[in-house]
Amino acid sequence: MTELNTPETQAAQVAATPEPQAAPVLQSAQALEPVATTQTPTPETPAGNPAPVPVKLELLRKHDSFVYTDKNGYEWPYEVQFPGMRELYDMIDDAGRSTSKLYDAYLKYVVVSPAGLTIDSFNDRPGLAQVMDKVDTFLVKAQGI
User: Using DSSP, how many helices (H) and how many strands (E) does the chain show?
Assistant: First the structure.
């Protein structure tokens, strides 16, 4: 039986190992050549048509106005604006099962005109339920649902 790790085999391995060579040094910047780059083509569908491009949503620019007309024919104008996805879901989460908390948040963050409305404001003005229905409808449409 022969031993593989003897002093003679170790010396032979060291002698057989080639010396590392130093990397070439570039003398000037002109020696560098540009590397050709290619743009990746737009992915295509099997029919050869370009793949659909995702739609960029601009939800924060969405706003609407509506007028509530009371039973006497007086018009109450309102303007609503989309508050953003995070704010919308925070309002819903914070309200939990409380309708009054949700309506207060809608009046604070969604109804921008007239400004400063609260649920108590509707002690002197009609249409709280109808205004909140319009706000709900607006928020659903603004999300694209």
Answer: 4, 3
101 within a domain of the structure (yes/no)? yes
Decide: pTM greater than 0.90: no
Q: For 63-88, how does the pLDDT look when each residue is reduced to its tens digit (9 = 90+)?
A: 889 999 999 999 999 999 998 888 99
Range of the domain at 113: 59-143
Cα–Cα distance between 79 and 91 in angstroms, integer?
A: 19
Tokens of 69: 């007309």
Q: Compute the distance between CA of residue 95 and CA of residue 119 in angstroms, rounded to an integer.
A: 14
CA 89 to chain centre: 14
Q: How many structural domains is the chain composed of?
A: 1
- What the block records as the tokens of 129 is 């339920």
Q: Tell me whether residue 32 is in a domain.
A: no
Whether the Cβ atoms of residue 111 and residue 79 lie closer than 8 Å to each other: yes
Phi-psi group of 73: left, alpha or beta (phi > 0 → left; psi -120 to 50 → alpha; rest → beta): left
